[in-house]
From TrEMBL, chains A, B:
Protein name: Transcriptional regulator, IclR family
UniProt GO BP: negative regulation of DNA-templated transcription
Segment forming the signal sequence: none
Ranges where the IclR-ED domain occurs: 72-255
Matching PROSITE patterns: HTH_ICLR, ICLR_ED
SUPFAM superfamilies per record: GAF domain-like (SSF55781), Winged helix' DNA-binding domain (SSF46785)
Domain HTH iclR-type: 10-71
UniProt keywords, alphabetically: DNA-binding, Transcription, Transcription regulation
Segments of this protein annotated with the region Disordered: 256-294
Origin species: Rhodococcus wratislaviensis
GO MF annotations, alphabetized: DNA binding; DNA-binding transcription factor activity
Length: 294, 294
């Protein structure tokens, strides 16, 4: 079939998506040669496909002749069930939580072996943090990651625990045994904590969003300066807001808008693309398979 | 070249992007036959390309066997300069404006002949409105649209004024002459108003974001119930917040993060794709060409 064999084992579409993937890091704009390097494609191929993507609006040209992600891609991405469904359902409760805490409030999901931040509400005067919507954070060094991990199936937890746990600060928990114990505690008490484990001077408290009959894959957190006191003082607020989002999601479920994101079930991506751990038809391996969280 | 001629005048990539475009409306999920109908492609072609997009993560499968926009597309879209740059710079000031008003606060840009909503902060108890991030609103019936239109170049204004102006309510301004006069007033006083012109019972007040040396294409607004009093009472707050975002954007300019979005310059898309009005190298036609707004 034409379009499937213009290069060794990569379709035209796979080449085009590899160009888009090159923007998944922190660089806002990339030159033609940056893109050729990142994708391993000839510059002529990148030029042609990037031109088509610009014509569509998925990319746009920058002043310096490079490329940036275009408005059309953002517009269509905003229709994802994560943004359109989960985020929209959660926003009022995140805003309430922000009103109470006046600290960063985050909404996140597991994607692959990372935390993917879906939303972040910040006070202009709040402590500087690294996360932004669309950004990724490590599971083991953030409260939101630990809350998600604690609610995951044992085999997924094990797959994370057996990998090297990167030390971001002197306080990052890098022992699989210690992390495993912390996850059990988080599961028991309904919230997880991070005390300067990703960024010095920054602490956080998180809880997963549960909905009756659905496994949790979303979590919310409050992130604040360490000198504001122990993060667990926000535990009641965070768990209450998480429960409210879970309750609201039940009302949305009829519409199909967010149940999928909350179950993690729909992301039937090809194994190995790093996105989700299940393939179509099988229950996701990070689904909570035993008892409800909390 | 393979991949460019498997159908009449549409490349493989154009077919794939037409599948993504089918999600730009309000439908969260679409079946294979919905997609075939929307794109005009054979079901077998949709099946193959949608399968590739699922493998990448740009689409995901839904429980009922349909397709929805995937997390990967959202993640990469979040890297657009609009989201990563403009939105991020504006957020603290939008949050301040929300704190003062406790009404919906919106950030929007012109895209084609529409308002494209970039961000919306809402109080859980605020009045119901139609807009959501990634959604489109009419230029002539919203305060944010009128503010953007008032700051646009005369030829762009004229192109909007000579089109039929849809009446959404009995109060929508549908006379080109009356709208033109309103735009002149908005330009003069620095803010625009909508009084139940899009939705009965809802009013709004908006101001464009200006930055020295850059033409405005972004605007912010406050949207509230009509029974809260005249929307112009928030004019000072809205114009102050807009000015603050413009000032902050100057500091960002060195990084190249948002200057492009504010000038409208980078969106060098193929004319006719409905995205922006300029082509590469020419100044955008909706750029303010005479004197600064306000």
């Amino acid at each position: 079939m034409s379009g499937n064999n213009s290069g060794p084992r990569r379709t035209v579409l796979a080449k085009a998506t590899s160009i888009l993937d090159a923007f998944a890091g922190n660089r806002v704009s990339m030159s033609l040669s940056d893109l050729a390097r990142a994708t391993g494609l000839p510059a002529s191929t990148v030029h042609r496909l990037a031109g088509e993507l610009v014509a569509w609006g998925g990319l746009e040209r920058t002043e310096d002749g490079g490329y940036a992600v275009g408005l059309r891609l953002w517009e269509i991405g905003a229709r994802s069930r994560c943004s359109h469904g989960l985020r929209e359902t959660a926003m009022p409760f995140l805003q309430d939580l922000f009103d109470v805490t006046r600290q960063h409030v985050q909404l996140a999901v597991i994607d692959g072996n990372d935390v993917l931040l879906i939303e972040k509400i910040s006070d202009p005067r709040a402590v500087g943090t690294v996360g932004r919507p669309g950004g990724r954070l490590p599971l083991h060094a953030t409260a939101v990651g630990k809350a998600l991990l604690a609610a995951s199936a044992p085999d997924f937890q094990a797959s994370i625990l057996c990998r090297p746990l990167v030390a971001y600060t002197p306080y990052t928990v890098t022992s699989a045994h210690a992390l495993s114990r912390e996850l059990a505690e988080a599961r028991e008490r309904g919230f997880a904590l991070s005390t300067e484990e990703l960024t010095m001077g920054v602490v956080s408290c998180a809880s997963v969003v549960t909905s009756p009959g659905l496994a949790p894959t979303a979590a919310i957190s409050v992130v604040m300066p360490a000198d504001c006191g122990p993060p667990r003082r926000w535990a009641h607020s965070v768990t209450t807001a998480a429960a409210a989002i879970g309750r609201a999601s039940v009302q949305q479920r009829g519409s199909g808008a967010i149940s999928a994101q909350l179950t993690g079930a729909p992301a039937s991506r090809t194994p190995g693309t790093g996105a989700s751990l299940e393939s179509a038809g099988r229950p996701p391996s990070n689904r909570v398979s035993d008892k409800p969280f909390r």
